[in-house]
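pasting for the record
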Amino acid sequence: MQISKIVITGGPCGGKSSAMERIRDEFSALGYRVLFIAETATELINGGIAPWTCRSNSDYQTFQMKLQLEKENVYENAAKSMDCEKILIVCDRGAIDSKAYMTKEDFYALVEDMNTDEVALRDRYDAVFHLVTTAKGAEEFYTTANNTARTETAQQAAELDDRIIDAWSCHRYHQIIDNSTDFENKLKRLSDSIQHFLKKNTESTDSEKR
């Protein structure tokens, strides 16, 4: 059994929702059982748990990370119970995304309180694919209308996008998908990048077995 866990991240209005649908269709056709972990922030905010309803942003980020890690553990254990040769777990954002929404001091205090560290959190994922916000290079398409949990202006979205890239920058497999093409080709570049990673990962695993 080969289980791969990847993160799809990026700034607001980068195309993650559309990307998830494409990944499900394309990789299911390639023989993968595709499992999706929904974005925890949107889930909590739409449920009434938000940075502005909690006592502090640090409290909110603690709740978010705890739920994120618990969801991942559930999905990983479920994947191991399935009778499939190839399973792809797709996380709509990962634990390290929280770093972009906090001061560095608060982030490191959070991971210490959770008895972990940044490297351990980062290495939970096999690969990270960043979809750049349309606020950088495709401003005419930027909108928050498709996600009620998002309120950022285009400038705020671009700044947040930069912080997310920086947060994940040390991951061993970090791919950035920009807006240098139209949206259809942006999604194609994402799919091609994921396929390339999975092929490379499979070859590496086979080599280790030999």
